[in-house]
């Protein structure tokens, strides 16, 4: 038997939050690539 007020209904994440997380991961990933590139150019 399913409960009409199940906790799964209350825990949906908004699309805007998911988008913000994806964009933050992409930004930080790109900054990491830039930092590695800068470090390699400084060493060699």
Given as residue ranges, the uncertain stretches (5+ residues, pLDDT < 50) are: none
Q: Secondary-structure element sequence?
A: HH
Question: Level of helix content?
Answer: over 70%
For the sheet with most strands, the description reads: none
Strand content: under 5%
Evaluate the radius of gyration.
20 Å
Q: Give the number of DSSP strands.
A: 0
Give the termini distance in whole angstroms.
66 Å
**What is the typical, i.e. mean, pLDDT?**
89
Tell me, briefly, the overall form: rod-shaped
Structural class: mainly alpha
Characteristics:
44 residues; mainly alpha; 2 helices
Would you spell out the secondary-structure blueprint of this structure?
Elements: H1 7-10, H2 15-43
Structure characterization notes:
- It is a single chain.
- The chain is mostly helical.
- The chain has a domain at 16-43.
- Helices cover 75% and strands 0% of the residues.
- The chain contains two helices and no strands.
- The protein has helices at residues 7-10, 15-43.
- The longest helix has 29 residues, at 15-43.
- The chain is rod-shaped, with a radius of gyration of 20 Å.
- It starts with 6 loop residues before the first helix and ends with a helix.
């Amino acid at each position: 038997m399913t409960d009409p007020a199940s906790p799964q209904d209350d825990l949906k994440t908004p699309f805007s939050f998911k988008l913000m997380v994806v964009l933050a991961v992409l930004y930080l990933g790109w900054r990491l690539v830039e930092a590695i590139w800068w470090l390699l150019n400084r060493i060699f």
